[in-house]
Amino acid sequence: MTKDISRATALGVALLMNQAAAGIVDGLLGGGSSISEGSEGSEGGDSISPNVRKFQLNVTEIQTSLDGGDVRSMFALNGRPFNGADAIVIDEGDVVEIEYINSASTNSTMHAHGITQQGSMYSDGVPGVSQHPIQPGQNFTYTWQANEYGLYWLHDHVREEYQDGKAMPLYIRPKEDRQTPFHSFTNDSNALQSLTKQDRDPQIITLADYTTLNGTAQKTMSEEWHSELLCYDSILINNHGRKNCPSMDKLKSYADANSNALIAADFITAKGCPDIKQSTPAVPENVTLDADIWYDCTETNTTLPRFEFEWTSDGSDGSEQWGVLQMVSAASHWSYIVSIDEHPVYIYAQDGHYHTMPTSAPADAFEMVIGERLAVAFKLHTPGEYAVRVAVLNAPQILAAHATIKYGDAETVFVKEEGLPPLPASIPSINYGGGVVKENATVVESTQLLAYDAPAVPKPHQKADHTLIFTLQYDGTLYWGMSDNGAYVEQYDMAKQNAETPALFDMQGYLDASSTAHYPAHSVVDVVFITNGTTPQPPHPMHFHGLHRHLLATGTLTGDWNYTDVADFDAKHPDTINWINPAYIDTFNTPTSMPDAPSYLITRFQAGDAEPTLLHCHIGSHKAQGMEYLLIAQGEQPDIPTYYHKKAAGEL
């Protein structure tokens, strides 16, 4: 039974977490092909302790194919890559205990993406920062309290291996008395009740990009190609992928017509990829590109995922019926544009927290960047089956995937185009190339949403206590980096993942390390991202571990960033910064930039406890090449349970 934590004392919660982490609470349940779970709660006197939810995840290796193509090696969580896209579901206020068993042949950790970990940074799952990598044959128990609500995800944080199957969704049901933003788009009482019910028990979509190459092979071959892998086989929707092969005429038309497709029709392959030997000067002439990876496309025939919704009446009584989908992008390389045919959506949550739309109009399509989580609601109007379209956005590949939504018993006509699956004959808002085809369509970007129940922005219109200005740059080879104040392109030393002592247990010793910035605990901190270069620069999904941040402003500069701080920028550009209700998120997508027009993105937050946290680009190859920074909040650290001290010392 789930207990209400509102009356539990802070001391009692801390004691329970320490006991759980130290192994005093009973052990975890046994394994199996699905998530093993146990729970317990205790009640006594005038206080109620939080419910303790225990799970076990066992990492193994299997041979499989998720898109009907060639079999490849993948990691499996409890027997299935990505745990079969099934979520761990808990309640706001629960204490979570996850025993992570590494039965695979490579090192691993498990990061709870978006969970703030205030007072429990020892469970953040970052090698070299909060723990040592978990060696094959070893295990590690993560313990933290679910002070958040909404959709999050778990993923490996060693190298770039989460794309190989070590990721899965995590859903935290909001407290029953938590206010929702549903009234911003409907006042129908039945609809509000249905939306609340679906929000507590949602259908979840996990998106991922998929290729026959595992992450390690991608990195090795990228060195040979002098290029990142810019050619994926398919997009997974809840572990279902399909190799689509539109005609060359179609692919070229998408490349020509779509301004968001960064690929020239003259250099496109049958897989919708760039022929990098022709389009990329850095690729040596003597490099041989594998035809199966870059050129040849063989269509596969797999079943499309279907998401069904309850349809109880024809609406003649005037009542509204709605559907809800929660989505997480567990991709490693591409961001997406998403739409549901004939069903504009209201985005009501982002990165776990409730948000509202930038205007009263629903979105015909919306952007979804790597690591981001969105919740959408849409009105059901005409029974039938409709296509869900997910296409690569702002990237040099033409690629898309499909699913369907269905409600009612009406028959649906399906249409088959060359190289694509049979799809409902519904009217699309976007095409296979990610281009918007609906006239006067509304497309919402991830930086445009407005916070609904976030804390107030600290020190509005005032100078922050500390300002960090990071320049995101490409060094002209394969590597991206970020530098404090743009002095030079700096790559994080990935050898730190195997440091003798993780940063959490020796913060003072890391203060002067490379790719490290620090500020006082509980101070107000601005982080400004500037993206520039001698060539056009793509967006970067920058993810902060620890606390969420306020997205104050984003845009394009006419020259360099010539401001002493954000308050100076605000004074010179009044009404540019949103001080009232900016998005409150953990993953920020920087704008594209041109050589003569650098882009900027401004965030602000109030630092929490003294702790080290990581900031990094969530494009897998960029992170693996060192596009990350260590942020240290200085001060008196919270107590760390004995179990984690012993793990850090190598005694367990």
UniProtKB/TrEMBL annotation:
PROSITE patterns the UniProt entry points to: MULTICOPPER_OXIDASE2
Name of the molecule in the record: Plastocyanin-like domain-containing protein
One Gene Ontology molecular-function label: copper ion binding
PANTHER family: LACCASE-RELATED, MULTI-COPPER OXIDASE
Gene3D superfamilies: Cupredoxins - blue copper proteins
Family: Belongs to the multicopper oxidase family.
Key word Membrane present: no
UniProt entry keywords in alphabetical sequence: Copper, Glycoprotein, Metal-binding, Oxidoreductase
Pfam families named in the record: Cu-oxidase_2, Cu-oxidase_3
Origin: domain of life: Eukaryota
InterPro entries: Cu-oxidase-like_N, Cu-oxidase_C, Cu-oxidase_fam, Cu_oxidase_Cu_BS, Cupredoxin
Organism, scientific name: Wallemia hederae
CDD domains for this protein: CuRO_1_Abr2_like
Domain Plastocyanin-like: 59-176, 496-627
